[in-house]
Specification:
Elements: H1 27-30, E1 34-37, E2 43-46, E3 49-52, E4 59-65, E5 78-83, E6 87-90, E7 94-97, H2 101-104, E8 105-107
Length: 109
């Protein structure tokens, strides 16, 4: 019996994003992923920026814009500054985090 391969798969039965990729990602790729808090299932938004340690060059936090004020006309008051250690999984199109929103909510500068 011959196994039929799905055109959406890469021939090995896995979706293209499931294939073993190099262990790195560009920041522009990170910005295309939606951030979801697994504690309550809330969609926090998309990565807007990152913070990194100047000595080590490693990313320490991802920054997700907070909710808009007055229908988005007046900008934003807050942002979510999420430590890298709080990221549970980075998938094809989303990032799962486990955070207490009160602790990661910061006032915008």
């Amino acid at each position: 019996m011959v196994k039929k391969e799905s055109p959406a798969c890469g021939g090995d039965g896995r979706r293209p994003c499931d294939r073993r990729e190099p262990d790195y990602m560009r920041i522009c790729d990170l910005k295309e992923k939606e951030v979801i808090n697994i504690c309550d299932g809330e969609r926090l938004g998309y990565v807007e920026d990152v913070e990194f340690d100047l000595c080590t060059g490693r990313i320490t936090h991802i920054i997700v814009p907070g909710p808009c004020k007055f229908f988005g006309v007046l900008g934003r008051e807050e942002e979510f500054v999420i430590e890298i250690c709080n990221i549970c999984k980075i998938g094809c199109d989303l990032i799962l985090v486990e955070v207490n929103l009160d602790k990661v909510r910061k006032k915008c500068c």
